[in-house]
């Protein structure tokens, strides 16, 4: 019976999802870590609800989106027990629609300045939501095209979120490595160093500060270097589908 059920949900995305889970387990084992220490965020940007549903039916519950409007459109069409992570650039004017439109938003991974932190903090309070988990995004590659605070400024922002934003729960740091796969260890190392500084400043253990790093091309390496949260999209759902301009 189990095999038949498995076959029923085993479209391409479900099969690819299972393969990624196996790879995460292997990477964790090689690094001497437990697989339960790593969260997989299945990033479904530009993908139809039907594909998200396929991976949901294969047992997954944590999904990520990069665009506010796309998340607001998708969330109501999918089960309420999904934990949505917003991982894209968030503008102040989109904070209210995001928080009001996605009651099961579990985390914003891309807080990159005090203004957006303050806006999220006020909106969570005014909507009567429970405290929202956030990561501070750090630009570890120095590329101008990437959002995030400079590594030298991440401690101040983490401190601001932790001490001044009572409706936000500071949970860790996030970075997007460089597209050039060979340079990512350096970026991951920078984020791990930022974590040490932040934990010292906040007086918390390193286990209390997550590292969100690693995507489709480099998640195994990120796990090896201490990632607790990997964001995998195209390996599960296939290449992105952007509308032609």
TrEMBL record:
Any Pfam family the entry gives: Ala_racemase_N
Physiological role: Pyridoxal 5'-phosphate (PLP)-binding protein, which may be involved in intracellular homeostatic regulation of pyridoxal 5'-phosphate (PLP), the active form of vitamin B6.
Mitochondrion keyword on record: no
Organism encoding this protein: Linum tenue
Gene3D superfamilies (alphabetical): Alanine racemase (3.20.20.10)
PROSITE patterns: UPF0001
UniProt similarity note: Belongs to the pyridoxal phosphate-binding protein YggS/PROSC family.
Residues of the Alanine racemase N-terminal domain: 34-240
GO molecular function per UniProt: pyridoxal phosphate binding
Superkingdom: Eukaryota
Cofactor(s) listed: pyridoxal 5'-phosphate
Keywords: Pyridoxal phosphate
UniProt-recorded name of the protein: Pyridoxal phosphate homeostasis protein
Location of N6-(pyridoxal phosphate)lysine modifications: 45
